[in-house]
Design goal:
Molybdopterin biosynthesis moea protein, domain 2, 4 domains, binds magnesium ion, alpha/beta, Molybdopterin biosynthesis moeA protein, domain 3, 6-stranded mixed beta sheet, Molybdenum Cofactor Biosythetic Enzyme, Chain A, binds adenosine monophosphate, 413 residues
Length: 413
Amino acid sequence: MLTVEEALEIVLGHARPLAPVSLPLRESLGRVLAQDVVAAEDLPAWPNSAMDGYAVQAASTPGASRQAPVRLEVIGQIGAGQVFAGRVGPGQALKIMTGAPVPDGADSIVIVEETDGAASGSVEIYKPAAAGDHVRPRGEEVHAGELVLAPGRTLRPAEIGMLATLGHATVRVHEPPRVAILATGDELREPGEPLAPGTIRNSNAYALAAQVATAGAIPVPLGIARDTPEELLSKMRRGLEEAHVLVSSGGVSMGEFDFVADVMRALEATVHFDAVALAPGKPTTFATAGPRLLFGLPGNPVSSMVTFELFVRPALRKMAGATRLFRPRVEAELAVDFKKKPGRRTYVRCVLTAGPAGYRLTPTGTQSSGVVRSMALANALAIVEAPVDRLPAGSRLPAILLDFPEDAALPEA
Ligand code: AMP
Ligand code: MG
């Protein structure tokens, strides 16, 4: 059976970044940059005041103090957005607001708190200025020609602010993958519908659509397919027509009504694997049809979510153009004793907490793959290798941080 790493390599080998498109800056949140962002000019483009105060020549203020203020002639005032046409000479001051260009002749700003400007035509300075005080120099943020953002970077609010600062009204980003989502099973009813005996709610389609959206892709819901090859075939065909990726849940185990892999083949898709050595999620199935990717995820709600995290999400990030495909991992200490069946690598739903002694992991109760509540309580997946059957409290384990995006810097414990 393939290891998780081998299966992931196959999946990523078939995932290609989608074409770039231009988007208005306001619509680009969460998209992945498909261009170099190079500064066209120095920013700030001219030295400007970092504070409200007086623009002066530092040399005009020697020995100034509250007891012995230096009096300077005030030759005018400017606010942000204005330009002072004259020049500040020795013994002179220009009243200046934050963001206004530092006038010719001046080399420093005395903040308003260190002055008394009550008298008209002059100001008392209480503190000697040093050249450069409270001046934001030209090019402090970026210099013309500098590469500020590189392709592959996900646009967060700060990147969007940076693009706006640099004057970009539109930005080249990758088209996000469209992901068709199909639940399978005769037993499934939608939330809001009454439950007849033997039926359960379709939770996977909702969790998966949310996972798709969180990965920066676009969910295309296909509803529920009953467990017949005909219905699976028509719904999966529609998914391939409407989306770059088809994700189904259920119908991949050894049961009498598990037809998903057969239907993939009937759609002329190539099935690359139908089992991976992990728990939960062993029957995970992956196929391709030309550039389209097909994931047959297991039906158990936790298996569906965990295998989405491990295989589908990195593929969607790659298709979306991202350079970093994996969520951050940390090493953490197990807070309690833990037991599992030996044989398969196990992803354990845990709460990860950060304390003075470092990161700690506490499993979120029963690890049955049907218990979606164990996912709702978790913020991390701890990884326990195949041969292990018991781990004492205090053991150190790697853990995947579920609430952090791939671009996130690791938090400090
Ligand atoms: P299957 O792989 O189709 O045999 O499904 C495995 C288990 O997952 C069964 O208990 C199913 O009822 C359950 N299951 C399958 N699909 C869903 C779904 N969309 N939502 C919730 N549970 C599901
Ligand atoms: Mg089923």
